[in-house]
Amino acid sequence: MNRLIAVARLQLIAPTFQLAMPWLILAASLVVSTLAPSVSDDRDLAHYGAGGLVLFYFAFCVVYVQVVATLLPYAMGLSLTRRTFYLGTVLFAALQSLIYGVLFYLLLLVERGTDGWGVRQPFFSGGWYVPGDSLVVDNPAEQVAIFAVPMFVLALLGMLIGVVYRRFGPRGVFVMLTLSVVGTSGGIAGLILWLKDSYFAFFTEQSAFVLFASWPLVLCVVFALAGYVGIRRVVP
Fold first, then answer.
1. Would you give the end-to-end CA distance of the chain in angstroms?
2. Is it the case that residue 144 has pLDDT exceeding 90?
3. Domain membership flag for residue 118
4. For a Cys staple, 26 with which of 56, 78, 162, 180, CB 3.0–4.6 Å?
């Protein structure tokens, strides 16, 4: 347990990058999103507020790429095993995702209480990629999970990319991302051919909790196992 705590402390060596950077991006996106409708006659801009959430999640993933790519050699120099470093980082990411999910939920309450930050701007409740308030549910625990689970998935993905980088270098990351894009595209195409006319109904008939907090758990298992196996072969 003490070694896992030591790994958690390692994450805070660069708090500006690890903790502040995603939130600075989110704050900038929120400011731009709330100001855009007031300086433009295009009311459709109000539908693009949730793009800032996408940037936050992307930044969160990048943070964990950097965590593994830069901190793993340092951790091994402190006599921390690869296994301990990986498990400690996974636990830290899970806790961080949960805390951020709670904070997002509180910000969602503020957004709804101020009628979209005073300008009817949806940000935490949805945006152009989901209709209306599709990200909003009545159950607070489910709402937190809708925010937190995808965040944890991206943290694990970032760790996996970091492991591939430490093991195979930039070329390995390029090959991994290329294969992922091809595999994902093929999977979507196969799903469309299988479901045919019911493809869109398959997604629209499922709740936000199922789409954003249940199905992603499968990816959690895949990314976590792949990262765990890969990190055991990483050399300093």
1. 23
2. yes
3. yes
4. 56
